[in-house]
Amino acid sequence: MEEMNDKLKQIALWLFELTNSEKQARKNILYENSNNNENWHSRILRMLLEYHENDSYPILDSFIDLLNKKMNLSINMVSNYTTHPRVECYNEWEHIDTLVRINNDALVIENKINWAVDQDAQIERYIKTIIQNPMIDGNNIYVIYLTSDGNKIVSDYSFTEEAKRLIGKNHFIPLNYLNDILPWLKDTILDIENKILFSSILVYIDYLENMFKNESDYQITNKIIEKMEEKEIGIKNLEECFKVLDGATKFVNELNKIKEQKIQEVADSYIITPLKSFLEKKDKQLVIRKAEFFLGYFNIEIKHQSWNKCCIHLGIWQYKVYGGLAYDDPKAPLSQDILNRLKAKFDGWKGDNNEPIWNYFKEYKDYYSLDAWKKIEMIGKGSFVEYVEWFVDDFYDKIKDENANL
């Protein structure tokens, strides 16, 4: 046990040095996202697909190659373009789990790893949304229905006859983690030179293997072992590699629990407590309804006690801190007259009848790092805290005369 602890400490120090390198190109996706749901797996997939080295997208190209071979397609790889292509990757854009756009092609990935129930006309709705905005032809839309082990079949009420008519032949692609994603990841990792990305994929492979309890097929190639040996951490054979991986996974899980607990404590002391005092001074009827904080995600909902339909919402979307007014129930929207009056109060208004959110975007990249949280803990303040207070102050002043209607 003492020898294993020493080895884990050695690995931890090695990873620490890597993550603090000035040339760090990728954060460990498992440290950033520790929650086993569709959104977590979708974020990991998006982070892998959008990884690029200069103008090269090796993992995205590898994924496209997987799709082409499985369905006899000819989706154009990024590396085949003669000019630099436009590549965009999103999570939860118009409620699509993962959307990848490569010039005029779109990959729509619906993640059902945890057997989420299909929604009425769900895939049809996604296809129509992309056809209308960003105006991509249906023949260039590819829908990937990603399940756990292939046993879940898409329903006719989600992938409707209309949806089938809108996209090209063989453009609906059933994939699953057990038989498609896991083998693909194992092949992909062999060509990864980036140390952080390599370690992230390795741990994710281990996570998926354990999830499927597929111990009899638990194979990691000699090339992976060689790469681990190159780190000089003393892993000499496959058995020892498994032991270290098992111990490291438990080690990381425990550290993640401590990290999230500490982040919440810092948030309670230096964000929530001062925000409560600020709101009480601003308007005694303003209260915090929800406040969640993680390393790469936060969600704050502020409610005026007279409001029946809306709340002030702050969160993260596409790497930016945003804030606006959100409905409690999209089926009970504000009237168009009220929306028009509110729109007139804001420049660059952005929203729709499902969730009106005003364009109060502000990039805050440091929020994604531990350094930002350490700074808040050390000085009790920071750009993020100041932004939250500024936003609520400015935003509420513009909408408070509509309190009776919200």
Which descriptors would you attach to this protein?
single chain; about 400 residues; alpha+beta; 5-stranded mixed beta sheet; 5-stranded antiparallel beta sheet; 13 helices; globular
Note down, in words, how this protein is organized:
There is one protein chain. This protein has 406 residues and is α+β, with helices and mostly antiparallel strands. Helices cover 46% and strands 17% of the residues. The protein has 13 helices and ten strands. The protein has a five-stranded mixed beta sheet, with helices on both faces. The longest helix is centred in the middle third of the chain and has 45 residues, at 238-282. The protein is globular, with a radius of gyration of 23 Å. Mean pLDDT is 77; it is low at 18-29 and 214-225.
> Strands across the major sheet, in which order?
1-2-3-4-5
Largest sheet: 5 strands, mixed
Number of extended strands: 10
In DSSP terms (H or I, runs of 4 or more residues), the helix count works out at 13
Radius of gyration: 23 Å
Distance between the termini: 60 Å
Content of β-strand: 15-25%
What structural class do the secondary elements suggest? Answer: alpha+beta
Stretches where pLDDT falls below 50 for ≥5 residues?
A: 18-29, 214-225
Q: What's the order of the H and E elements?
A: HHHHEEEHEHEHHHHEEEEHEHH
Shape: globular
The portion of residues assigned to helices is: 40-55%
Mean pLDDT: 77
